[in-house]
Amino acid sequence: MSCIVPPARLLSRKAHQIPGQLHVTELLFEVPKNYADPTAGTLKLFGRSVRKHEKPITPLGVKELEALDKLPYLVYLEGGPGFGNREPQDSSLTRYALSRGYQLLFLDYRGTGLSTPINAQHLRTLGGPQAQADYLKLFRADNNVRDLEAVRKFLTADFPEDRKKWSIFGQSFGGFVALSYLSKHPLGLREVFLTGGLAPIRRTAEEVYRATYKKTAERNDAYYRKYPEDIENVRRIVEYLVKNKPPLPGGGLLTAQRFLSFGIGFGAHGGLDSIHSLVLKLITDLDTFGFLTRSSLVATEQHNPLDTNPIYAILHEPIYCFNKGMASNWAAARVGSDLEDFLWTQDENRISKSRPIYFTGEMIYPFHFDTYPELMEMKEAARILAEFDGWDDLYDASVLRRNPIPVYAVSYVDDMYVDHGFARETADLVGAMEVHETNGMYHNAIRAKAGDVLDQLFRLRDDTLD
């Protein structure tokens, strides 16, 4: 359901200069918790707007200063779901965008970063599991889009008419949000940039996971080709964890299932090496002491940090519930239960004895809610959400098909998270879209190979074919 979006209300604005000649303004907004029921309370949204810090030879006049504040906006939409933004000076997009005449906005989605974050302690104050689930339903992409439009209306209220629209840049899940925005509020957009974010807008969660399990298996094969010694090392670690299930310093348990879900990193540049480094650390402990040290247990907690980003676990599968009547019902677990190399996702005692043990990728399972302390408290609410089928529609295919707003996308052929075939289906559907496909980068190339990605995106925009 799409509804009229009122402007956000500004609660505070604080400007700072930070190293690197950046002028950063910290913004705190208030928006409706539920746009369909404005009386239901409010949430806070935190963001940072960024422009170049100007040091002119002569002082700028009032009109010149106002012109700086009214530069056209480019809004960065982070991946996830469930992750807030990094500091602007740490983003590869910042200097590139500023050099092209934009000012940037990094807005933490509701429930993430400094925007009224989701946590178990607060959820307990709302009531039982059903009340908690009802609250969590409000944190999907449809409301992310409404929040963005509300903030746009406030920030550009006194802009010249030709600058009231803004540009958006969606990485990964941010691309899913961007396509929802393009469906629901296209009049607020000037142009759209996507990296690894061509959402499978007509594919069910089951179809998505059948495709991504296949790609995950390929990345496991690549891992064991690069580090063949880890075939035995991983098996020894898994056997130890099945027997011992050591408690982690921050709470929860390091089970074989939790360890084997760290393969999410295989889809990123450097991901194979990162998992090998962890495996080497763990196996060195077992060889030296026969147990895992605090240092190694702390290191494992830094992989797949679901406790600090619980929306990722709770609302990951619902990003594929694009129409009413669709429930996720633990789709990754159901699809994996039919795949020989992933039977352990149902029962850790079903680990293959004759084949290399495969890690899973970007999948969430019920066992995560038995091993992460923050998620343990949300287990029943997560079950309710997995069975829920009343989600609002995320996309309008007819609007996307007729779309006149320029969309520029980089799509990765070897993307482990967003199936390339499904991405191409979306690219073929959306009007006014130009796509660069490459098999030379992985999903996190916006960080690992930022210059290559950004050059290609803006080449799509600036270089005309005719």
UniProtKB/TrEMBL annotation:
Family: Belongs to the peptidase S33 family.
PANTHER family, per the entry: 2-SUCCINYL-6-HYDROXY-2,4-CYCLOHEXADIENE-1-CARBOXYLATE SYNTHASE (PTHR43248), PROLYL AMINOPEPTIDASE (PTHR43248:SF2)
Keywords, alphabetical: Hydrolase
GO annotation, biological process: proteolysis
Top-level taxonomy: Eukaryota, Fungi, Dikarya, Ascomycota, Pezizomycotina
Residue spans crossing the bilayer: none
Record organism: Immersiella caudata
Name of a matching Pfam family: Abhydrolase_1
GO MF annotation terms: peptidase activity
Domain AB hydrolase-1 as annotated: residue spans: 74-222
Protein name: Alpha/Beta hydrolase protein
Gene3D superfamilies given in the database record: alpha/beta hydrolase
